[in-house]
Amino acid sequence: MKAQDVRASAFAMPLHRPSYPPGPYRFVDREYLTVCYPCDPAALRRVVPKPLEVADATVRIEFVRMPDSTGFGAYSGAAQVIPVTFGGEKGSYIRFMFLDTHPPISGGRELWGFPQKLAGPKLGVERDTLVGTLDFGRIRVATGTMGYKHVRADAAATEAGFVEPTFLLKIIPHVDGRPRICELVRVTKSGVTLKGAWTGPAALELHPHALAPLGDLAIAGPVTGLHMIADYTLDLGKVVHDYLA
Questions:
Q1: What residues pair up with 135 in beta bridges, in sequence order?
Q2: Mind listing the pLDDT tens digit for each residue in 29-40?
Q3: Within 13 A of 2's CA, how many CA atoms are on the CB side?
Q4: 203, 219 in Cβ contact below 8 A?
Q5: Under CATH, which number does the domain 23-242 receive?
């Protein structure tokens, strides 16, 4: 291959048949169980990178089922999310994310900087209970439960929170081990169709794990739950801060 052929065709690795296709990416019937809990503000400030600011002393654990996604197929995920502000704009910072298949891990890390690891997240219904679990190897890291569709949530408020931007710390090393990219990335959703949102009694259990330490942001009070189903397009991102500049 000539150098100009490489430049013209290079998108992601491997050069021939990359592990994911070009975006943006559309998700259909993406389903969430989100359990929110209060946390020590000092603990949040220790893990949220500047110039982001902690918006309030809460944490969200999200269990997600993605049955139909452009280029990535069907998979499941779990994440630890912290409300933040950037330049006065409200959004969310994702501290950890865990997926159960390779293509979205590869694409999410390389394109946007989603902090993803391979694990065993699941979301499903057991009789009258919506259940989300996260296993790292054979070890249970998190379990979230919620009464199934007990009360309809406020659709306008739910969608307003859902479309707020996501902020990610994208880190890609150079071949000598130094960081070659270290950026704060802003990611948005478009074409959102909220198909349903419900609240109900919820519970959350977090377990210590050396490589999946969700529990170090400890639960400090009552939890709340939100169940939501939506279609949307995950847009390509924008760099809003370069730590190496």
A1: 120, 140
A2: 999 999 999 999
A3: 3
A4: no
A5: 2.40.400.10
